[in-house]
């Protein structure tokens, strides 16, 4: 298991090691720490057994178990790992802080660092937390971090609330603006293609139109300030836009239909693997020289012979 060190203003989160065992046993010595768990970790043997289990963790790189340190002393434990309670590989967060250090926002600070790690370094689409119905302190912490309560269920042998956090939009695309020599032609090609992929018209004015999907939108504009009348995708600047296109058979159908909507296929003789044997994609160019790459999910790899 390899987990990175995570630093915060007041804390350091670092990978759990066998040498931390007795320090963690001390953190859990107060029976109130185990109030909402099936096991009583104030029993040193139960606590040691739990730490030993954590030390055998072999999940995805960058996930696992951390100790929370303040000024070099272990004051808590935290984890981010696939949930054994939820279906699939959904990532579940957990945090445990010595009550002697409670009420100062330290657990919130540690959990925030772990959440940030999950969304930025690991690129997780969501982080889940299962919190006992009566564990108000933990539910408050989760809400402070932006988790949403999405329901309840029987987990870890007791009624739990199910919380989920999604990545924020900071750092993501807000919009991309493409200047075009002919708005009608651009709308006929881009508008059709984006509509097929689930985008919806977002803004419209005499010189432009935009389409939105999720939080980002694409603008095409025939600006009066244009300094040229054609796009050269091989000149410095934008070469192509690449979009997810869904399953491979959906992409096949899209490529066929695109011919009637202002697009011609590039590298057609090598479709669908012009980008490599494991990459199932189409490369389309419209009448004004703009290229779009459409990438299928779950590539259907065809091997020679
Ligand atoms: C869940 C647990 C970690 C929460 O501990 P905590 O001390 O309430 O959490 P924090 O360290 O983030 O402190 C939050 C409190 O400090 C206050 N606080 C002070 N300064 C703060 C700051 N800078 N930022 C956030 N909160 C701050 C908050 O208002 C809050 O107090 P409140 O509950 O009276 O409103 C702790 O109760 C625990 O370890 N319980 C046992 C294990 C457990 O149940 N884990 C959760 C499993 S799902």
UniProtKB/TrEMBL annotation:
Query: Pfam families from the xrefs?
Result: Acetyltransf_3, Glyoxalase_4
Please report the stretch or stretches of sequence annotated as the N-acetyltransferase domain.
11-169
Q: Which keywords does UniProt give here?
A: Transferase
The cross-references to Gene3D superfamilies, in alphabetical order and at most eight, read: 2,3-Dihydroxybiphenyl 1,2-Dioxygenase, domain 1 (3.10.180.10), 3.40.630.30
Q: Does the keyword Cell cycle apply?
A: no
Q: Ribosomal protein among the record's keywords?
A: no
What sequence ranges are listed for the domain VOC?
Answer: 172-297
Q: Which GO terms describe its molecular function?
A: acyltransferase activity, transferring groups other than amino-acyl groups
Protein name per UniProt: RimJ/RimL family protein N-acetyltransferase
């Amino acid at each position: 298991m390899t987990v990175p060190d995570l630093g915060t203003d007041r804390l350091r989160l670092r990978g759990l090691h066998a040498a931390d065992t007795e320090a963690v046993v001390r953190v859990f010595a107060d029976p109130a720490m185990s109030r909402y768990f099936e096991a009583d970790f104030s029993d040193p043997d139960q606590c040691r057994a739990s730490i030993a289990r954590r030390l055998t963790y072999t999940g995805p790189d960058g996930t696992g178990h951390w100790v929370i340190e303040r000024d070099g002393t272990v004051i808590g434990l935290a984890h981010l790992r696939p949930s054994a309670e939820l279906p699939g590989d959904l990532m579940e967060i957990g945090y445990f802080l010595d009550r002697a250090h409670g009420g100062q926002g330290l657990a919130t600070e540690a959990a925030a660092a772990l959440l940030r790690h999950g969304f930025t370094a690991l690129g997780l689409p969501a982080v889940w937390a299962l919190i006992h119905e009566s564990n108000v302190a933990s539910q408050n912490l989760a809400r402070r971090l932006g988790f949403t309560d999405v329901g309840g269920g029987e987990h870890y042998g007791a009624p739990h609330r199910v919380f989920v956090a999604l990545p924020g939009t900071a750092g993501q695309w807000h919009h991309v603006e493409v200047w075009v020599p002919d708005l009608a032609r651009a709308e006929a090609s881009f508008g059709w293609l984006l509509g097929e992929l689930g985008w919806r018209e977002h803004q419209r004015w005499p010189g432009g139109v935009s389409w939105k999907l999720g939080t980002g939108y694409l603008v095409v504009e025939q600006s009066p300030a244009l300094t040229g009348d054609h796009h050269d995708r091989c000149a410095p600047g934008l070469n192509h836009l690449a979009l997810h296109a869904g399953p491979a058979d959906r992409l096949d159908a899209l490529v066929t239909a695109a011919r009637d909507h202002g697009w011609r296929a590039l590298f057609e003789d090598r479709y669908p693997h012009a980008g490599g044997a494991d990459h199932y994609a189409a490369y389309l160019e419209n009448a004004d020289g703009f290229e779009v790459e459409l990438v299928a999910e779950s590539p259907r790899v065809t091997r020679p012979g």
